[in-house]
Amino acid sequence: MPERRDALVGEVLDDRYRIERRVARGGMSTVYLGTDLKLRRQVALKVLHPHLADSEQAVERFEAEAIAAARLTDPNVVNVYDQGVDGSEAYLVMEYVPGVTLRDVIKTQGAMTPRAALEVMDAVLAGLTAAHTAHMVHRDIKPENVLISADGRIKLADFGLSRAASEHTATGGLVGTVAYVSPELVTGRGADERTDIYACGILLYELLTGRQPYTGETTWDVAMRHVNETVPAPSDAVPELSEDFDHLVAWATEHQPDDRPAHAGDFLRELRRIEDHLSEDEFDLGDEPVTLHELVVATQNLLARTQPADDEPSPAEDAAAASAGAQDAEPESEAASDDIDNDAATTFVPMVSNVGTSVFSPPPPDSDTSLVPEGGIPQHELRLPADTQSQDIEPPADSSPAYDAGHTAAPSQHSGGAAPASDAVAGPRTGRAARKPSESVSKPGTKRKAWFIALIVFIVTLLGGTGAWWFGAGPGAEIVVPELKNQTESSAISQLEEAGTHANTSEDYSTTVEKGKVISSDPKAGDTVRRYQGVNLVISRGPRMISVPNLNGLDRDAAETQLKKAKLKLGDVSERHDEAKAGLVIEQSEQIGAQIAEGSAVDVVLSSGPAPVEVPQVRGRSVSDAKDLLKAAGFTVVEAEPEFSDTYREGNVIRSSPEGGEEVKRGSEIEIIVSKGPDVVEVPNVKFKSRDEATRILEEAGFKVAVEEGSFGTVIDSVVKQDPGAGQMAKRGSTITIGVV
Q1: Which residue of 95, 180, 296, 599 is most buried, as measured by CB atoms within 10 A?
Q2: Fold (CATH) for 12-381
Q3: What is the pTM for the complete model shown?
């Protein structure tokens, strides 16, 4: 079917940007492929629809999107070059990235190897890290918003849904794609950086397995599976995958945002840590390496075989320009809508919204809601006009809520949706029929006019009374949420029912709140809520039970890391002697494989090495006896330099070092000192020597000298006697007495 001529094709905006052809059209804007005449390059142009360009609020939102996206200058993010208003056309100018989308690759190639998946996720998380560092939340991470150029560049596109991280609770508006939506968005708790992390976890699962973790007959079914189920491990689908990927996906897709990485940078660091530790077999699952570049080339070749005529855009060009545009853009080509995996335009709004209306019922014909097929199942994309997204919209008095919080089934596809505020009427008709009276009221006649006036008065009175009842005592009345924390589920539900509202319950693990009791309520205690909206209760499932890992043989740091990975913590650490190497775990307080509560402490005992051994007493023993005794006790014996001893005879041990009785490590060296016996010297002959000479000779020999003189004193100064006598053996240092006359 030939494409209708677009009036803007061929036009030049601000004398610079020539519009070449239309690529995609959405509820707020149209995306074109264009040419920057000044810099002579191709660009993607996003032009706000004329009826919205007249709205100051819509234009401000459009410009705010450009300013927010332009703050990001990361190589992994599609750049915003310019924005402006030319006459009635408000537009953005963005980087044109020729290539394919990640959705194209998954659709044509299936599951990726860990090598290729890690390359994609590294780039996505790098771009997202830049956004989170700038305090921006993307809010629509999915394969359609990941562009891969022919030269291998990977870029994160479409920050049209992005919001400042501090504004995540400001509105209940459009928030993303149901296949990747986080539990907190389903339950209306708002988005922050951790919402993006959840979507990245789903994306990683899809890259590794080739499919999304959750499917269902309706978007409602899929959304509630995000709330009520745990994302399966990728290795359940691909057993060859490293368990590191199971832990990574589980961490990113925790139900509670506080349990996920707080920032894309945290997720990226863990991803790279895993990448550094994978073997080649784990990178490629034992097959020949397949790079992302090879997958992209194969995808382009496959798309090229289905490429249209020369004068029509290629699928790669459409992908590059459309993804560079807005979240509300739908491809002009019908090819994309035939893909069972294509949820590029399937978006989701939380079941508890600040606008006060249900979002799961089908929209009226004149609303700005588009139906997008996903696997052949009708799904809804709610796009509120820019000037109504932040207004409170109350349901009409005669309508029943489109969503019954007490049931989890999808609502009827034939129930009426909320009509735009400007077209609201009391009757059941919608669309053009609602704007036409059911019968003429223009015929002349006072009686007929009087009846008509009376009818109008009656209707106004009826509506006024009904409205007063609705907002005063009916389902629209406000109540104050009571304190429900730590109450049993039945007690909390009873209190809410007594107040005229209902409870929406979900479950989560808790280490602080007893099983079956309320962890939290939304709105929280003290806040107000309209009766028909209900209160979300999170009921405790008790603590998550964790299998105790084997810590034996690990050092303290490794044991603590293993426990943290298992969501347990290290308890008391003690030591005792053991034959195991010092510093290694030899005992743990919880049995390996036992199931204990998440966050529990596991005590460990570390080896301080073998117990010390008492040194045997070997003093006075022969050398051979001493050596045998010490070796038997497990020591190594070393002989030191022998020493003279007056106490121990030659050949016996004088002492050991360490001494006997001391406790030392088994296998230590023990030094023994062996006796050489007493230190004795032969006494020299000094008879007939002079006193001085005799004294010198004896002192040089190591003796002390004592002199005895004759009765008449020293006459001839000659030694006439010595004791001990010459040739005798005397202890070195002993005294030799000489007689001098």
Answers
A1: 180
A2: Transferase(Phosphotransferase); domain 1 (1.10.510)
A3: 0.47
